Structure formats: structure tokens, C-alpha cells
């Protein structure tokens, strides 16, 4: 492999993002200086687990880790797909593994049927409810129409079992259709919020906990919109994991199908009312930030725009987060795509646009 093809990064931040972009670009990557000054230097268990999952999803990948674990060399193979089962452990939630892996699935050689086991909703990681209700619809906007028809395999995320921290015990199943290429995005109108939907889930606690979360969230959101439906999702028996816990996920949809999401998870000392109020206030703050894509999904949307066809893609976003800015840099490094960013007068929103690299999938056009 020629030296100029090698991607070089430093630090443990954005570990998943860089591995996935390197895989899509078919370029080897070396990540150095991974926590060199910590008491326990090197990669953590969940990062090593993500590397193992990447090896399962691809065919022909090679991973080299130095003795101290502070440097990783990854040479990607082809994205193969097929049936894959992986235990995510309990140090991070399932969302940590699934959030960026969703990008690889449409470009696989065989349809990816992925089963992940672990914590379905954990503090610090995107919950599986948010991935199902926001991440997948954003991905669907980029998929060609023939891949989301009733004749093609569906884009789905099914929550088989819920598992709360710290012991997990949850399980999800993810499947995505194969594509020939993505569509160019043109999403510049935010619209007005027309409905809010939410899920209050509770495992190994009283079912009344979910109702208390719903009442608390309603006390805030009912002042702003009448079209508000919050659902209770209580799992029992073996489907409820190994630890007690409760969480709430909210999604606001605009008249132009822009999505804004928030979620809150129980922690020691938190009541159901605290979780419901936290989720509702976070959602209002997210709506206030503006844009057609919520802050947590800005890097995801930017990466999809860069992978799209050789046509101009446009998207209106709120103020770019630090994660989105770093994604712009990594995309330029891995794919050679440069974005044009223009501020929109009388608002903090920005209009980002680019010409994609035209990445092709394995699906044959008939």
C-alpha cells in the first residue's frame, strides 16, 4: 500500500468516525497517541470491541495494535455484510457501535443482518430509540427510491430486548437495503414543528414509572403544541434485561420532515419526573437551535452528503458543533471532499453544500 494512501490521525477522539470513513474510502489508517499520558494508556475495551465488529462486517480487514495500545493500524477490506452477531459488552451502549456502522450497511456486498447485544439506552451514547426514529429516517432521505419501495428489503431497527445500565441484557436487530448509489440531498427549508412523538421505556421497575415520565414531559410540551403523543413501552420478564432503569426519547417533526430529538436516561437519585422534564427541556433547546438536522446528527448527514453522487448537495443546519467541524476535516482528509459553508442572514443557521464522491454500492441496477 503506497504511503500517500495512508491516513494518519492522533488521539482517541472520533475513533469510530475515522475507521468508518477509512473503510468507505478504502484507505488504510493509522491512529497514534491514544491516551499516552493516562494512568492506563491505550485503547479501551469498547474501542477494541468496535474494531472486532468492523472485522466481522468487512472481509479481508487487518488490524495491528502496538504493545502499549497507544497506536492502531487498520487496513480495511471490502464491506461484506451478511448475518453478524456481536456482544457489545457493558462499558458502552449499543448506540456507540451502531451509530456509525449504519453508514456502512447500504454499501455492503450482502444485505447486513446485524444483531447487537448490550445496553440499549446508556448515558453518554445515543439510544436505540433515537437511532430508530431519527438516524434511520435521515439515512432514508439519501437512499434511492427503489431501495425503499415495498419490493425491496426494509430499513429497520427492531428492539428485541431492552437492557439498562450497568448490566445490560438488551438486544436489537438492524437491517438495511443494498444500494447502487446515494441520492443528492437538497434540504434547505426547516418548516414549523407540527407534531411531537415520544417513548417512555421502563425495565425491571414499576410500569407506573413510564406514566410519571409522560406526565412530567406533558407539563412542559402541552403549552406549545396540541399534536403530542407519548407512548409507554414497558418490557417484562426476560425481555427486560438484567438491570432496572427507565428512559425517555422525544422526536419533533416539522412540516418539511425536519427532525429534532432528545433523550434522557435514569441515573442514581433521579426520579421519573426529573427524566421527563430533562428530555422535554432538551427537546425545546434542540428546536431553538434550528436547522433541518439536529445537532447530534450533523456529522452523520455531512458524511452522507460527501458520499453522495457527483452533484451538488445542500443542507441547512444550526450552528455547527465541534463534532461536525471535525467531521468536515476528516472527510476532507479521507475522501477529498471540501464543503462550502455560507451563513444565513438574520439567524445562526448555516447552509452547507458540497459535491459528493459518487461512492458506488454493490447492488446491480436492473
Task: Describe what this molecule looks like in 3D.
This protein has helices at 15-25, 45-57, 94-101, 128-142, 208-221, 272-289, 298-307, 322-335; strands at 7-10, 29-32, 58-59, 62-65, 72-75, 78-79, 83-87, 113-118, 156-161, 170-175, 186-187, 193-203, 228-235, 245-254, 259-265, 312-317, 340-343, 350-355. By secondary structure, the protein is an alpha+beta fold. The chain folds into 4 domains: 1-78, 2-Layer Sandwich (Translation Initiation Factor IF3), CATH 3.30.110; 81-187, UDP-n-acetylglucosamine1-carboxyvinyl-transferase, Chain; 193-289, RNA 3'-terminal phosphate cyclase, insert domain (Dihydrodipicolinate Reductase, domain 2, 2-Layer Sandwich), CATH 3.30.360.20; 294-355, Ribosomal Protein S8, Chain: A, domain 1 (2-Layer Sandwich), CATH 3.30.1370. The model has no long low-confidence stretch (mean pLDDT 93). A hairpin with a 6-residue loop joins strand 4 and strand 5 (72-75). The strands form 5 sheets. It has a 4-stranded mixed beta sheet with strand order 1-2-5-4, covered by helices on one side. A 4-stranded mixed beta sheet has the order 7-8-10-9, covered by helices on one side. It is built from 8 helices and 18 strands.
